[in-house]
Amino acid sequence: LLLAVLLWAPWRALHGAPLTELSGDQDFQLFLQRNLEFTRKIRGDVAALQRVVCDTLQLCEEDELQLVRQDLDIAQAPLEQCHRRTFQAETCFSQIRAGLRIYHGSLATIRALLPGHAGLVETLQLDMANLSSNIQQQMEDLGLATVTYPTENQDPVPTFSSHFHHQVGGFFILANFQRFLETAYRALRHLTSL
Fold first, then answer.
1. What family is it from (predicted)?
2. How far apart are CA 57 and CA 65, in angstroms?
3. Residue 24's pLDDT band (boundaries 50, 70, 90)?
């Protein structure tokens, strides 16, 4: 909770300032550093859940599960605007927020799959919501366009035809989310070097 409060520190408004001019701005750099740490924490929590899936369900290798994956409807949030070659901060931030929203809902699958780890899943969902809020606040402070997603119309939780498909679906939700977080982390780190 203290981390969430620290990350909600008020930011000096920088309305309309071009992003390249913010590279030396201390508030923007502080935002990036804090949220790099926050993203690293979330990645660690996802990795912990991946280890639980591997240890308890014996689902560890993605290659072995590719055939089953074809039968599953697992969302993979796009982050093409966050790659260095096509990088655009405004759309990258928006894609990170949209992806966090998708994975936030998908984690209900993990909570149902691993009821003994519901506390970790709930902490992860809270951290994701806080990271999304931090990014939205920073976008507003920078004068960038933001989209606020209604909480009552979240994406539906994936459904599965069997318990095994539920297990494999949980595996791929975590694997996709981990890749998403790695790209988001690299994008935030890239901004620190502009």
1. Belongs to the IL-6 superfamily.
2. 13
3. low
| Closest C-alpha to 127, from 53, 65, 38 | 38
CA distance 48 to 66: 22
CATH number of the 26-192 domain: 1.20.1250.10
Torsion of CA 54, 183, 66, 113, to 10 degrees: 40
Q: Amino acid letter at 103?
A: Y
Worst-scoring range by mean pLDDT, 7-16, 29-38, 106-115, 166-175?
A: 7-16
Measured at the CA of 10, the angle between CA 17 and CA 89, to 5 degrees, comes to: 40
Q: How far is CA 4 from CA 35, 113, 126, 179, in A?
A: 11, 27, 9, 24
Task: Break the chain into its structural domains and give their ranges.
Answer: 26-192
Helix (H) or strand (E) holding 170: helix 163-192
| Tokens encoding 93 | 């931030």
C-beta separation of 69 from 172 below 8 A: yes
What are the angstrom distances between the C-alpha of 7 and each of 85, 143, 154, 155, 185? 29, 19, 24, 26, 16
